[in-house]
Structures are given as structure tokens and as C-alpha cells.
Amino acid sequence: MRKTFTLFQSHLDLAHRYWSELLSVGDHVIDATCGNGRDTVILATLGAKTYSIDIQQNALNEAKLKVESKGIAQLVTFIKGCHSKFPEEIESHSVKLIVYNLGYLPGGNKDVTTQVTTTLKSLEHALDLLVAGGMISITCYPGHEEGKREEEQLLYFCQNLSPREWSCCHHRWINRKLSPSLIILQKINV
Ligand SMILES: C[S@@+](CC[C@H](N)C(=O)[O-])C[C@H]1O[C@@H](n2cnc3c(N)ncnc32)[C@H](O)[C@@H]1O
User: Fold this and answer.
1) Ligand 1 touching residue 180 (CB < 6 A)
2) How far apart are CA 87 and CA 29, in angstroms?
3) Domain ranges of the chain
4) Which of 11, 48, 111, 136 is least enclosed by beta carbons within 10 angstroms?
5) Domain 11-105+113-187 falls under CATH 3.40.50.970
6) How remote is the CA of residue 99 from the centroid of ligand 1, in Å?
């Protein structure tokens, strides 16, 4: 039988494929922009022990209901706060995957959006938390002003990471203007 192969349908679809390839049951992960919890549900369904952070309590409440309804609440710790500061109990070199789905909450207040300064601060800290072979997955939304700045500055930051320590790539649709894109970083096993 002839094989068929379909390119990924969206940056989130591609991100989810990376996550499921990478994770094993019991791995520690961080969802740094929990929102309504769709990504958190995917991570915990893969069996990962998940810290889920968001600055909006209403979003976390929604996410909590979702994980309870899926029977995976025991795998998730919710934290209300800014991701520029991770909980102190998370040790260096202990996390397999850190996920950022940037921008604002779909259907929520568009003024409460991730900001380039805090996102970069968070990312710098996140690099240290990863185990060797661990990944950071960042979905960017250049279709709005702050999202465009974030994507530009994150790309600049990532392009300057040492190739001996980091594999970095950027997936973007080159025939869909200002569509969301995906940055993936992997800490090299050395
Ligand atoms: C695109 S939404 C995330 C979608 C979510 N991952 C999901 O699966 O539904 C971005 C989220 O980032 C949150 N956010 C914005 N700034 C933040 C910050 N400094 N620290 C943590 N979360 C932040 C927003 O409140 C919003 O819920």
C-alpha cells in the first residue's frame, strides 16, 4: 500500500508531536502559560508531573476543572504567578520539557498578554532547569504588536545560544503571513 504523509496542520499540532516523542511517564514538565489548560491536559495525559503557571486565577480555575474531569488532577500542581519566577522547589537540571504558548487567553482580556521582558527573563531561567536532552517549546503569535516583538527578540536570543550546548530551530509557514510559529530548543547531551 502507498504511504501518505501530511505536513503538520498548525504550530500546536507540531508542538504536541514533539512533546509526545520526548516524554516518558513520570517526567517533570512546566506549562509556563497554563491559560485554560488545554496544553496542561495534553502534558498530564502523557503521564508527566506538571507544574502549570499563569497570572490569571480565572484561567487556572478553568484549567483545574479540565484536569479534574479527565481524572489527571493528581499529576498537576497549579501556581498563580508570573513565569519570570519559577517555584523554588524546582531544582536545576530536573525538568524534561518547558512549554510556552505565548500571547493572551483565547476569549479573554487581550491586554493581559505575555510581555517580551518577562518572557525573556523566564526563558533564561528555564535553560538552567532542563535535564540534558530536555526541550523548551515556544509558540509565538506575531499577528499582534507585543507578539511580534516577542518573536523577534526570542529568535535573536535563541540564535545566539551556543551550538555546542543547544539545538535550536524555528518552524514557520513561509506562505502564511504573520501566522503563529514554533521555536524548539533542546539541551544537548554532553
Ligand atoms: C495563549 S494563552 C495560553 C493557552 C494555554 N496554554 C491553553 O492551553 O489553553 C497565554 C496565557 O499566558 C498567560 N500569561 C501572560 N503573562 C504571563 C506571565 N508573565 N506569567 C505566566 N502566565 C502569563 C495569560 O494569562 C494566558 O492565560
Assistant:
1) no
2) 13
3) 11-105+113-187
4) 111
5) no
6) 11
By DSSP bridging, strand 181-187 and strand 130-140 are antiparallel
- Residue identifier of the C-alpha nearest atom 2 of ligand 1: 105
Distances (CA, A) of 96 to 30, 102, 124, 150, 157: 9, 19, 16, 24, 21
Task: Note the pTM of the prediction, 2 decimals.
Answer: 0.96
Q: How far is the CA of 40 from the centre of ligand 1 (A)?
A: 11
Any bridge partners for residue 140, and if so which?
181
- Residue 27, ligand 1, Cβ within 6 A: no
User: pLDDT by residue for the chain (190 residues), tens digit each?
Assistant: 899 998 888 899 999 999 999 999 999 999 999 999 999 999 999 999 999 999 999 999 999 999 999 999 999 999 999 999 999 999 999 999 999 999 999 888 889 999 999 999 999 999 999 999 999 999 999 999 999 999 999 999 999 999 999 999 999 999 998 999 999 999 997 6
